[in-house]
Amino acid sequence: MSATDGAPSTGTPLIAARGVTRILPGIVPTTLVHDVDLAIGENELVAITGPSGSGKSSLLYLLGLLDLPTAGEVLIRGRATAGMSEEERAHTRLATLGFVFQFHFLLPEFTVLDNVTLPMRALDALSPKAMRERGLDLLGSLGLGDHTAKRPDQLSGGQRQRVAVARALANDPPLVLADEPTGSLDSQASEQVFEILRDLVRTGGKTVVAVTHDLDIARRMDRRIALMDGAVVGDERVVVAPRRNMIIPGRTEGANPESSPG
Ligand SMILES: Nc1ncnc2c1ncn2[C@@H]1O[C@H](COP(=O)(O)OP(=O)(O)OP(=O)(O)O)[C@@H](O)[C@H]1O
Ligand SMILES: [Mg+2]
User: Fold this and answer.
1) Helix count (H) and strand count (E) of the chain?
2) Structural domains of the chain in order of their starting residue, each with its CATH number
């Protein structure tokens, strides 16, 4: 794989792992991930799959700068992160990355709206009024407009997970990392959350990287990265639009990349 895979437009991936290894020290050291090379570009919908214990969550935490590799490097838009101070890393995380976990991790004593504005307050880039408005907009767009003043325990699991998505989007990050975002939901709520994540890519221009056990959901994503024993053992993409279709005179308007052969 070349260093620019996944980012044909700019040549710099949104996020890249170079030889990323994470070993937990101990009497018997545990290797969580081993020598992972990946490049993920703008506007990608990526599934991370693999058996339980294969290192999916570990990799996501490393990509999300929540954990540090023992060897190798995570780069965000070409920028190395290993040498960052804790403060710089926290700022990069807040501005660039949104997280959605299997269990929503909303703060129970805060309202839905306050949970969503929390990352905005941490980044401190907007006025309190603008934070509130943005929070209400985000919640409204996820069908939660009537629930903003409630506390998380007054919501269903699917609603809570949508609040978690709103929180992940609080600072409008280009990249959303999700660890089994539908893992604790019934099939209907699962589908709704999947469609929201997909639309973040299709119409919101975001990149979403989601760990999933759900093979049906993984199949519907644009790219599937498979892990086994902490190593990447597969990286397959849905074939995208052949570019030549875009330059056939008179065909440009009507060209439907999805239905093109090849
Ligand atoms: N804190 C820890 N101490 C010891 N071993 C750990 C620790 N965290 C993870 N591991 C081990 O590292 C490996 C990778 O764990 P990880 O949680 O990344 O797997 P996973 O693919 O996310 O699994 P699952 O699908 O069950 O969530 C596993 O073998 C796990 O037991
Ligand atoms: Mg996991």
Assistant:
1) 7, 10
2) 15-237 (3.40.50.300)
pTM score of the predicted model: 0.87
The model's pLDDT over 59-107, given as tens digits with 9 standing for 90+, comes to: 999 999 999 999 999 999 999 999 999 999 999 999 999 999 888 789 9
Task: Give CA separation, 61 vs 3, 33, 83, 210, 211, in Å.
Answer: 21, 11, 17, 12, 11
- Single-letter code of the amino acid located at 139: L
Secondary structure of 105-141 as H, E, C letters: CCCCCCCHHHHHHHHHHHHCCCCHHHHHHHHHHHHHH
Residue 122 phi, psi dihedral angles, 5° rounding: -65, -40
Distance, in Å, from the CA atom of 80 to the CA atom of 46, rounded to the nearest integer, reads 22
Q: What's the pLDDT score for residue 228?
A: 97
* Residue 77 Cα to ligand 1 middle (Å): 27
* Closest ligand, as measured to the CA of 227: 1
Residue located nearest, by CA, to atom 12 of ligand 1: 32
